[in-house]
Amino acid sequence: MSTTRNTSNGPITGFITGLDRRTVVFAFGLYFVGLFATVMPPLFGFFNRMEPFVFGLSFVLFWVFIVSVLIAAGLAALYWVESIRGELV
Amino acid sequence: MAISDVLPAVLLFAYLALLAAVVLVYGRLRDQTMEEYAVAGRSYPWWMMLFTVLATWIIASFYTSWFAMAGTSGAIAFYIVLYTIAGLVVYYAIAPRIWKWGKLHDLYNMPDFIRLRFDSPTLAVLVAIGAIVIGAPWQVLSIKTFGMLMYEATNGTVPFDVGMGIITAVVLGYIVFSGMRSVVVTDFVQGIISTVIVFIALAWISTNLFGGFGPLLDQVATQQPELLTVQGSTGYWASIILTGTIGGYAWLEIFNRIFLAKDVTEVKKVAVGAPILVTITSFMVLVLGLGVGLVPEAAEAGQSAFFVMAEAAGGPLLLAGVGVIVLAAGMSSIDSQLATLGVVTSWNIVKELKPDISTGKAVNISRVVIVAWVLAAYYLATLDLPLLARIAIWTYEGIVHLFPPIALGLVWKRGNATAALAGIVVGLTTTYGINFLLAPSVGGPIAELAGFTGAIIGLPLNVAVYVIGAYVGSDVEYVDELFAEVAEYDGESLDLESRQEVLDRYDPIAPGEDD
Fold first, then answer.
1. pTM for the whole thing?
2. Cα of A68 to nearest chain B Cα, Å
3. In A15-46, which positions are buried (b, 16+ CB within 10 angstroms) versus exposed (e)?
4. Which of A7, A25, B224, B323 is least enclosed, having the fewest CB within 10 Å?
5. What would the pLDDT profile of B155-203 be if each residue is shown by its tens digit?
6. Contact residues on chain A for B229, CB-CB shorter than 8 A
7. What CATH code is assigned to B45-475?
């Protein structure tokens, strides 16, 4: 099974396929590491607080949830980008 | 004996019968090869993979020990959510290349991978033994949890030791019968139960006991506000997340999941579907756990709190439902562990030392090993082992040391068996030396390291020794071709020039003369 590059000509698709592989890896790497850094010391000290409450959750629990959701979204986005670029295999 | 005592037991046994039926219909071995027994023929689509990965990852203790931890220690218990999701990023990064080498060179598990990458049967055997030993406490913990689960879920109708024995026998039965294929099909059922059906139980319990999650959180904020932030040292928080993230995919049974997929795309799709599901499931379970202290009977019940809350909210029916959820989580983890342990022992240790035995004999040895270890683990589980859960958490401090050779071996051509072994030895010695000398309790934070654990020193040392050894020593002879294969392989043909060059120089574990 081979995965061919998406050849449709939309502007987003064109932008994504035009990127260098290293740029894609760097961008997503920065995204994931950046999110992870917010739950590690020293940055975590800022987020580890009670207020403000968000949807009833203390701020730190809300932040843990949001970081997890954003990481999940990032993985989905990375898969989508790689499928457009034909880099799934 | 009241119906309320019997109903949960009846439902649990009905669930076990359902699993047996699933195995008989969908989980039979298709042929008697190690490829079939160890990795189910590398045949599974992403949605089966997703649930076997999640089912293997989420253990029964999540609903007992970690649920209780949320009620007593609060927000720190949510580290599990973070390391699970971060671990899936690690999975996305490493799994595709591992799968490709697995497909190109018939790899079944992590010692196979180490053997190929570093061209070292010795290192592979040592890693196999080390990984088995480090993982052993988790099997004993799982079996113990089975006993507690059956006792609590049936209101004592099924005694602790009997419950342990029944569930263990069921798991043993289908693993020995059908190896990894039975594991995957049962994990599919059990994964759905422990990640999707669980929402019904969570909604039911939270609504009946607290009026919903919102009121639950309001009550915790009023009565136990200290639970809503991470107390104490954030160094310990960071340590347990980092070791979980880094070490997660070095466990034998988790690493083995990668090889079950039918192609690379399916491997990657798992990382798309799994994260949001596991995030929501695990987060909501732990939020409910925050409410343990609000229910006096649950607060007194310790690790049985989830069961107590279920019965209080929904009587014997919900208690049975929660029993099935916890049972599913436990069985789906231990079956993967045991199946992989059996294959690693027979294929990577016994067959490495005695190459002439046939594959059929290796499969049978695997079955014998699994039975023997389960009997030993069952005996250990009958003993009073108060530190077992802490020891199990501490094993993450050890398993992380297999990650540097895996990760660096995947992305960097430099590196050799001596560097890998030296790094592991130095890292393990440093980590556990620090932990034994300085940790105030098993698995606890170390004040001298700002709350971090020994691995914060040991792991960087491991990497440093590996890097030094990589520059000082020589590279693996065929490493250029090994990396070229990954680039050349398009998911279709195995007929690659680079692969042939590796095969000309690498001597794999091969079928015996009688195959």
1. 0.90
2. 6
3. ebbeeeeeebeeebeebbeebbeebbbeebee
4. A7
5. 788 898 998 999 988 888 887 777 777 888 888 888 888 777 899 999 9
6. 48-50, 58, 60
7. 1.20.1730.10
